[in-house]
Amino acid sequence: MTxxxxxxxxxxxxxxxxxxxxxxxxxxxxxxxxxxxxxxxAVALATDGExxxxxxxxxxAVxxHGAHQAGIATxxxxxxxxxxxxxxxxxxxxxxRLLKDWTAAARRMTAGKAVGEGAYGGLAEAPPxxxxxxxxxxxxxxxxxxxxxxxxxxxxxLAGKRPAALADLxxxxxxxxxxxxxxxxLCVQACADDPQVAVHAIRNLAxxxxxxxxxxxxxxxxxxxxxxxxxxxxxxxxxxxxxxxxNIAGTETGRLDKFVWVGxxxxxxxxxxxxxxxxxxxRRIRMNIETWDRTSLQEQEDVFGRDKGEGAPAGKAKExxxxxxxxxxxxxxxxxxxxxxxxxxxxxxxxxxxxxGTDGLGRLDAGLFFLAYQRDxxxxxxxxxxxxxxxxxxxxxxxxxxxxVFAIPPGVRDANDWWGRTLLSEEA
Length: 428
Description:
Layout: H1 21-25, E1 43-44, H2 49-58, E2 61-62, E3 79-87, H3 92-110, E4 143-148, E5 186-192, H4 195-208, E6 213-224, H5 253-259, E7 278-287, H6 289-293, H7 297-304, H8 333-337, E8 348-349, E9 352-358, E10 364-374, H9 381-391, E11 398-408, H10 421-424
Antiparallel strand pairs: 1-2, 3-5, 3-6, 4-5, 6-9, 7-10, 7-11, 8-10, 9-10
Helix pairs in contact: 3-4
């Protein structure tokens, strides 16, 4: 978990209409039948009267095209369905066709439209193009963000295109990683304000990819644990503390260019296809809820270095007061994760809470699904996590149990562009 620049990992519905029944019920766990992604943050509402009213109530459509993929600097939605895929086909042309088909489907779903010819009315003897569970629902600010894992570059003759910044994560002290919840050739991050819309998106991409890709693992998330919107209320994590106080805002173009987006000239010629993209670290962090809940308030505040009510740093009165790091315990999470203690390291976080039932021993399987975007993993997450893993008092209450890293390519520029074109198109 992390406080953006601070709780960087080891690191409520929107205002307006009442939440839908689905939003209240949420997701019951990760046991979906599925087997177990774009640009800017501007919200473009539908122009039609009835759709406009629905969009205003539940979240309109986020623009799919642009220099960067949506779902990174975009205002953080309430719900997440994240899926990692293994590529099963060895045919490069077939894989490119899949990415083009996925792009077409993503373009429609993020606009609130059904996939292909829709869920009904087609040939009765064939399965419909869309599974149908999102019929009648507004776009709910759905964003889909795709990424390529290190293992993809072992396929299709792509070894020479793997960016140096897509570094394998080392084993950190305290890691207890489950291989079945780690890695993946591809990832798709679906964020929306309605869980059914996010699940529908991943389900339909998986269906389109049947026989060519297979879901390796997936994670449902609720209760965003960070914000990219200036002035919004700072969310709280499952430990009850405000999380992401100093996160990069989607309007801070200078900080985004410096810390998040891959710049022209980063790396060598083999990395040029990543210009305008970013790098994602995903970590499933189990939180020892029962132990934490029996810990005194004073110790909880000492562990984080902030008070639990206001979120103010130790010795300060307000949440956004500049922290005086020496007023905190030497092993306080904020003190160790703060950019001033790490040579200015800054990452953009879009994490979510999760609860996936129990572990069979009467304890909640719950925690933080940590998502961090950065310009270079070697200069962002890795050095930061090394420091936190070795010294953070929070480690007594958390454990990293899943891990993956992905190269997030630039956005889809227009109606003729497609996910991965800069990597897989010979012309590009």
